[in-house]
Every structure is written in structure tokens, then in C-alpha cells.
Amino acid sequence: MAEDLHHPSKQLCVVKETKPILLKPTVNQSTHNKIKLFQERFKQEAENLVEISREHDQISNLYTCFEKEGQLYWVREWVEGQTLTQWEHPVEPGMIVEILRQTLLVLDSLHNRGILHLNLKPSNIIWRKQDSKVVLTDFGILKEITGHFPLDLQVDPGPRVIPFSYRSPEQSKGGRTGPFSDYYSLGLTMITLMMGNAFEQFKRDFAYHGEMRWRQYIPEVNPVLADILDQAIHYDPRHRFRVARDMLVVLQEVPIEPSTT
Length: 261
Hints:
Its EC number is 2.7.11.1. With 261 residues, the protein is α+β, with helices and mostly antiparallel strands. The protein is built from 8 helices and 9 strands. It has a single domain, classed as Orthogonal Bundle (Transferase(Phosphotransferase), domain 1). 39% of the residues lie in helices and 15% in strands. It is globular and about 55 Å long. The model is unreliable at 148-162 (pLDDT under 50).
């Protein structure tokens, strides 16, 4: 959290520091060229995000990005509200449908511009306090760009990652990504939100078996909604939804259950 001292209103913002780029001990001209390509690609993608975040009300504004002493920094809007991680779980099906609907409309706008989120998970979806709207934040551009570079240009891996991940299988393997990758992460996010206390057991079972068997943890889930989510998280991207609009159409068939709160 930071305060912009150059802004008349001293507006609050979020500064995010990315993991540093590490080089092998032997730094040659080829390596320097790769660094330059990385920086140019990063800048280009960041500029695209700055532009679309200004145009779309449900994407947290990216004010700028900059490099200092080998570190890359994002400066984005602070959104007053709660991330879905902070919500009381399990989340009721009616709210799941509403979150899905709003998020898919945002993704539709992004994908039509050729922009992928690639980092959808509960902590990166904010329920804005002032108008009860979904706001997407923290795009996964840096990880995606770095994954396409050879091994002598790397991002610090940091701590060991737990087996469970919201990233699609093709992302985890460094394969080709597309809108289908975002649908996978979104579908898995909705599933885990409905699990409540069963989520920890689900993660343990997933780590042991490596299979996305989730319906047994939410036996009361509406079968229409369950089928939609199963298609969204299909291991094979070819069997997932083609575009966000396709998922929105079938989502209309899910009966809205009365709220229990």
C-alpha cells in the first residue's frame, strides 16, 4: 500500500515488486539481447494493460510500471473491497453464478483485445464495496513472458510451490495458452469457493492422486452448474469453452436458488 504524493488527492495505490531476473555467471552479448527483448515485451504488455484498465471499470487501474536497479514494479489502483479469499466460505451457488457472469463479461472484453489474465484465483478477484462489482487485478504477464525465454534468463523461483495450483495444465507445462486457460482458472476458483472447509482435504487428495475429482466435496451442487464447471476445467483445452460468450449462454440455464443469508 502506498500514497501517491504527486497526486493532488494523495490517492492510495498498490505497488507490487516482481521477482528479480537472475543471470548465469557468464553474461555474454546473447544474454544481454535476451534481457532487452524481455524488457521490451514487458513494457509493451504493460502499456496494453494501462490502456485497457482505463477503459474498463472492472479492471483495477494500472497507473504505471517501471524498472529500478534490476527490479520491475507495478503501480495500480487500490480497490476498496474484499478479495474472494476474504469471503466467508462456502459461497452460495447463486453468488457463484453472479461472480461467474460478471467475470466472464470482463474476460470477454479482454480476450477480444487479445489480452489474457493468466492469474485468476480468489485473491485476484475483488468484490468492490461501493457497487458490488467484480474487479480483476494482478495479471500474470510477467510469468508468462519469462516462460518463453531460454534457461539463462530466469525469474527467481522463490519458495517451493505447493502441488495445487489455479494455473491451467498448459501453463504449468509452459505450453501454448489462450482464453481457455483463463476459463480453467476461473472454473477452479468457483469450485473451491463452494467447498468451504472441505477445500483443505480436496488439496491433499489432489496432491496424492493428481485428479480433479471435486463433486464428492459438494454433493449438493446443481448438476447444470457442475457440468459447466467440469467443462471449464477439462484437462484438454480443446474440450473447454471456446469463448466467454459460450459459457455465459449456458450459465443462463442454471436455476438461481434463494439466498440462505
